Amino acid sequence: MTPVTALTLTLLIPLASAAGIAFFLRRRGGLASTLSVAAAALLCICSFIAINARGDAAIVASWDWLSFGEFKVSMGFLLDDVAATMLAMVSFVGLLIHVFSLGYMKSDKAQARFFGGLSIFMFSMIGIILADNLIMIFVFWELVGFSSYMLIGHYLETEEAKAASKKAFIVNRVGDLGFLIGIVLAYWHFGTTDLTKMEQLTLGHPELVNAGIAAFLICGFIGKSAQFPLHVWLPDAMAGPTPVSALIHAATMVAAGIYFLIRISFLLPVEVLGFVAWLGTAVAVYAGFCAYAQNDIKRILAYSTLSQLGYMAAAFGLGYPGIALFHLITHAFFKALLFLGAGSVIHGCHHEQDIFKMGGLLKRMPITAITFAIGVLALCGVYGLAGFYSKDAILIAGGLEKTVIFILLTLGAFLTAGYMGRLFWVAFLGAPKSDAASHAKESPLTMVIPLLILAGLSVVGGMIQLWPEGLGALIRFDLERLHHAEGYSAMHHDVLIYGSAAWVVGLLGAFFFYGVGAKDDRLARIAPSVFAFLKARLWFDEIYGFYVSQVQDRFAAILSFLDVFLLRGLIIRGSAGLVGILGLGVRTLHVGNLHAYVYWFLGGLLLFWAFVGTVL
Amino acid sequence: MFDPNATVLLAAILVPLFAGVVLAFGSGYTGGMRRGVALGGFGYPLVAAFFLAFRFDPAQVGAYNFESKLATGLDSFGIYLHLGLNGISLPLFLLAGVVGFAAGLYAMFSNAERPHLYLALMLFMQSGLMGTFASVDIFFFYFFHEFALIPTFIMIAVWGGTGRRTAAMEMTIYLTLGAMLSLLGLVSLYVTSGAESFSLPELRDYLATHPLSETLQANIFGLLLFGFGILVSLFPFHSWAPKGYASAPTGTAMLHAGVLKKFGLYGLLQIGVPLLPVGMAHWFPWLAWLALGNIIIIGLVTIAQRDLKLMLGYSSVMHMGYAFLGIAAFSVVGAGGALLMMVAHGLSVALLFMLSTCIYHRSLTFDLGAMGGLAVKAPVLCAFFVAASMASIGLPGFGNFWGEFTIFMALAETEFTRWLVLPAALGIIISAIYGLRAVANIFFGKPKAEFAARWDSDEVKDLQGFEKTPAMILLAALVVIGIFPRLVSDRADAELGGLYPIKESLPQFETTAGTPAVSGKEQTH
Q1: From CA B321, how far away is CA A490, in angstroms rounded?
Q2: Three-point CA angle B243, B247, B252, nearest 5°
């Protein structure tokens, strides 16, 4: 099998699986889930074959897809180091989440639709990773948006799913509008959207880098990675089934925005990079605060995801794309673990999601609880775990480049430890606070095994020296660069102290403040105004809601009114009436019934014919 | 020189016509016989279209494949029944075959009164549609359009839904006005050019050596633009469309919105713009602003709709704005995008109109606020409707995406039109809003009280075979174009390359188009 064949298979296997499910297995949930998992396993194997075959050079292939005049679209693969690293993570984590879903979705009515959706998602996500040009990225970018829409809306009878799926798609479209314009402008600016060609062009002619185009392009990132001001869809997206939250809204799709930035880093001038760094930092801190006012286990994790995406964006903006990628990968491991752990808890507690109604799960679901604890520690950046290496590097980069960003990101790390501590102490320790929690049982093997594997990765995944040779070259390069930067060792020392202090203080603070297995939120009790402020999340949703219902919909209604009454009623009818007055002959034509009108018309045509005939 | 394929082409017009005549006198036919005849009448054009598409010789750029020329008794005017296909008309010919077949299939099993007459009129329409896109002669191009239009009016007036009389009347007045203006344009093109033929290639060759004066070009193009524009519901001449489609019987709406409406765009694309480039340059600001009106104003009006059929009618008007912008870009890219958009929109709008009737049969209402939760009862219908909505809002994987994307590309190609990209692209958000709202209101959540009361009746069931087959055909066509746009673009690209010169070669275009806002204002005052 040639590498290109392997890549083609990697891309098409999940599509075939989705098509098979849609056409033949709609009513056979069991078979559909088997097919989807088998497809995930196969594509994982194919992707590793391709990655192995890569060697040092990138695998490239390209096919002409559409051409009109000067406008040419091609579809192709560019499997370089970054793409290979991302592909390895997505196909492997994707497989684990597929396996987990076998158990989690076992009793779901619409299992087939769910697994079909997962397959479509894998197809689209892999398309983004492999794409060699902006247009192809955009095609698959929209398709992941669609699969996300479909899976958020899985429980379609519920009002949450109905609203959240719509919101996710529309908010993403707002970002995609900018992305689309950016692509269109870039095409005529560079004469191509091929990543390799554009990179060569900008290397030869740095003046070609255009801040306007870059600003449009990063709109796509802002929408997909849920950054300000388009972050509102991600917490609501938790209305989808938990494996979806793990796969799409934590590990892979939302990180695609960061991946996209890394792919086009040569198109972004310094000003745009600086903007991305500040944006990411702001989101990291903002989301950290928001998480304190959430009681739903998944929504807490969703804000944590937002915040971690902010870290990645900050790292990228500070000029270290490799470190952003590093955090993207380690985050995928421990956040997938946390979400799957949450899924296991929700499964065990019969769909109870409020952490204040859980408690005592450590005894009843020990494997879930211990792996979840590992995930929490990895997320907090405890020394030696996956999150430590990448977060440490981000903080160092921040400390070396911009002190304010460093301070804010350290604050973010403290906040992270605090809300994760709150979640863990309240939900897993103490006594059960509801019937569901007291009857919780450990989840079946299909769910536990992915947890164990991800826990393992969350422990060792950050040790880059253990990674396979062919992966993570950019990460190694940027880490080296950081290690040789001026002032590294002093900063490394500081970060070790501040970073460790952040998680120790955060976890212990939460322990003493909220208490083990608390029944209600102490912050809400002693400082309701602070809690309410955090819960309001700076009123973004309210403002958008106001805009949609009070401005947009009203404006639309007014236009609709004008359309019917002004345009139709007055102008068109009025002029028709005028025509009518002009002559009785015309008037009979208009008032006469339709048949007569049609006969007139046919008669006219015949007359024309006859006229020409007699002239002959 | 006799080309046997030319007979196949001619038969694609005659077979549905013949089948229609047979059915018109078939009041005593059994259901099976009726369907058999109709199947032949709708099936043959489809088969012929695909057969011809495979036999199509892409090397004949600038000329027509499968040409035939029959005397009609109008030789003194240079009018012949001159048929043939080129890279621009072939995709539309295929579209007519596919949509016609799907609409016919659906109509065969609908419970219309006097079904033999209903099917006969649809077959006449089908014959006219095939003829329109197969005509090389401008007179017959127009004639076949009228031939298809008359059954439309009758079908709306006789078989239409609520308010069919006024809707049919308004539509008739509007469309006849549009048709008259475009006829006037075509005739004056013939008269003023001094060419002795209505044949498009001869006219083109003649005009290439004897170009018209700027004033004449501008006047004639104005007639064509507004004539064809009315037929394609150019803002603000769109108000016939939503009402008309809302009250039209399903098959008619599918054929008209899906195929017949494309006549106007096709006329501009194949005839108006290439023959009258200076006229096009003169009217550019009008076309651009009005097309934006289609996209943004009508887009917002669509958001405000609460009736499913009206919403679909308005959304169809909105999407025509993209096609107009593609034409306004006056380039191979723009014309190609408009062509892709026409084909894809034809398929998706026909599918949506059909599915909306399927929804009505289950909900007994078009009121979006009174449905809900239908996905539980009808998952397949939901899947089709979601797919069709996604296609219509330009999700990649369906043909519409390539149309819209190519048009945006075309607008950004030069400085004159680049300002249009942002306002035009706002449409992708607007259409997502109304498309997803409709899906959410019909299929998601819990059923509303009245709908819930009928929940267990036999009518509320999933898509049936006779509904599934035509839907499948249309969706498959959308996906094929979405995945392999080259199937449409390769031949069209070659053909358009000859018709659309590089626009910088037109000084008028540059001067007029460079200051669109200013000249637009001058025109209005």
Answers
A1: 62
A2: 110
To the nearest whole Å, the CA of A232 is away from the closest chain B CA by: 16
Please check whether residue A530 touches B, CB under 8 A: no
Using the beta-carbon criterion (under 8 Å), do A594 and B157 form an inter-chain contact? Answer: yes
B162: its two tokens:
């609520």
CA B49/CA B12 separation, integer angstroms: 8
Q: CA angle A409-A227-A145, nearest 5°?
A: 140
Residue A60 bridge partners (DSSP): A78
Token pair for A82: 């970054």
Question: Which amino acid is it at B280?
Answer: M
Can you give the pLDDT of all 525 residues of chain B as single tens digits?
A: 467 888 899 999 999 999 999 988 888 888 888 899 999 999 999 999 999 999 888 888 878 888 888 887 777 777 888 889 988 999 999 999 999 999 999 998 887 788 888 999 999 999 999 999 999 988 889 999 989 988 888 888 888 877 777 777 778 888 888 888 888 888 888 888 877 788 888 888 888 888 888 888 888 899 999 999 999 988 888 888 888 888 889 999 999 999 999 999 999 998 888 888 888 888 998 999 999 999 999 999 999 999 999 999 999 999 999 999 999 988 899 999 999 999 999 999 999 999 999 999 888 888 888 888 888 888 999 999 999 999 999 999 999 999 999 999 999 988 888 999 999 999 999 999 999 999 999 999 888 888 778 777 777 788 888 889 999 999 999 999 999 999 888 888 888 888 886 555 454 444 333 333 333 333 333
Compute CA distances A342 → A199, A301, A422, B15, B470, whole Å.
42, 9, 14, 65, 44
Nearest to B10 by CA among B140, B187, B149: B140
Chain A to chain B Cβ contacts (< 8 Å): 186
- Cβ of B390 and A146 within 8 Å? yes
CB A342 within 8 A of CB A297: yes
B/e letters for A215-254, b = 16+ CB within 10 Å, e = fewer, are bbbbbbbbbbbbbbebbbbbbbbbbbbbbbbbbbbbbbbb
Phi, psi dihedral angles at A521 (to 5 degrees):
-80, 120
- Scan for tokens 């043939």, then name that residue: B84
Chain A residues 91-130 within an 8 A CB cutoff of chain B: 110, 113
Domain boundaries, chain B: 4-509
> HSE of A481 in the Cβ direction (CA atoms, 13 Å)?
15
| Distance from C-alpha of A359 to C-alpha of A433, rounded to nearest angstrom | 6
Which sign, positive or negative, has the C-alpha torsion A394, A395, A399, A400? negative
From B260's Cα to the closest Cα of chain A, the distance in A is 18
Flag if A181 and B425 touch (Cβ within 8 Å): yes
A531/B contact by beta carbon, under 8 A: no
